[in-house]
Amino acid sequence: MQKPKLSFWQLWNISFGFFGVQIAYSLQSANISRIFSTLGADPHDLSYFWILPPLMGMIVQPLVGTFSDRTWCRLGRRIPYLFLGSVIAIIVMCLLPNAGSFSFTLGGAMIFGLVALMLLDTSINMAMQPFKMLVGDMVSEEQKGKAYSIQSFLCNAGSLAGYLFPFVFAWIGISNTAPDGQIPNTVVYSFYVGAAILILCVLFTTFKVKEMPPKEYAEFHGISAAAEQRESGNWLSLLKNAPKAFWTTGLVQFFCWASFMYMWTYTNGAIADTVWHTTDAASEGYQEAGNWVGVLFAVQAVGSVLWALVIPKFRSLKTAYCVSLLTGAAGFASVFFIHDQYFLFVSFLMIGVAWAAMLAIPFTLLTNSLSGSHIGTYLGLFNGTICLPQIVAAACGGLLLRLTGGSQVNMFLVAGVLMLCGAASVFLVKESSKTK
After folding, report:
1. Residue 76 in 3-state DSSP?
2. Which of 228, 230, 257, 290 is the most exposed place for a label (fewest CB within 10 A)?
3. Helices and strands per DSSP (H, E), number in the chain
4. 10-223+237-428: which CATH topology?
5. Could you report the per-residue pLDDT of 185-211, keeping only the tens digit for each?
């Protein structure tokens, strides 16, 4: 079967729901440390709260990939999981920012927040993974780079919106402070608006995208019954026969995602200390710093969008990958030396360069080395190269914070070193496949 060439808008529709899912993810990543600090968490314990999100992703995404590979119903193969995950995420987004408002004790509020965070990240992972699979399912090899670039653009646009919501709400006069132990309304309302946008975007994808029936899917990917039988097996056998790109790109991913875990965990405390000169989570300055984190992360998203336009200009994906990560390493390290809230824009633009490469290049390298019969499972397993480094980084965060002097801004130097290791690891990337 000749693989059809999809129009720009067909590629756009496949990934549009990612915009809403990424708003939810960006609200989580920009505000979790702020929420738990406001509830009363010790800075040295902050990284431990971040173990749950990647842990749930590591469990959920391979399951979604495996089960959706075997699913077919009126809604399709991937969309049922996308829809269910989004509905759960919407409910939890309305509950999580109210963790301090239900008359719980400090311990009760922390437990409620942790359970809500676990459910939120589980549902976001359940909703996010199908979009990567839809591109692998429905897009030819020649168009995958363009498809993942569109997905990267929508991802960063969603991030931009989610990161800026608290800042915009404060600008229009919504209270950015709250009684001790409660979350400011700027954050609460941001989660409400994000939930509303998420359901609209997911409904758009549900009604606009029609997945291939099993027979057409097999023809599109050139899968015969005999070939599918040869490739069948459990996760261990699939990992054993994974293409080299799976492992070599995964090593790069390890260093990169550990870097970003430290950024998400410590940016609020770092700039509150170095720019607003406070470490008191209940202070007005700390909450202002929390809003500014959203602005900085939005700047990162802008840098990512702009750099995504540059990446296709490189002749080699590996060169683009390496240059992007080196730029990100310099951006992370520079945060340590810059104590002006506006000069930090330069740092986060550079960090956005690395983020653009991380969103697009690894999945292009991997999906081009895969056959079609287990693409969902492989993408789910590949998510382990995103989740595992975050778990390791979160588990080691408190110790590293103590070893580096206890100041949260020092963790940006650690992040810079890790990103530098990621750039060096790009030279090990292999694009050949064992499965072909």
Report:
1. strand
2. 230
3. 18, 0
4. Growth Hormone; Chain: A; (1.20.1250)
5. 999 999 999 999 999 998 998 889 888
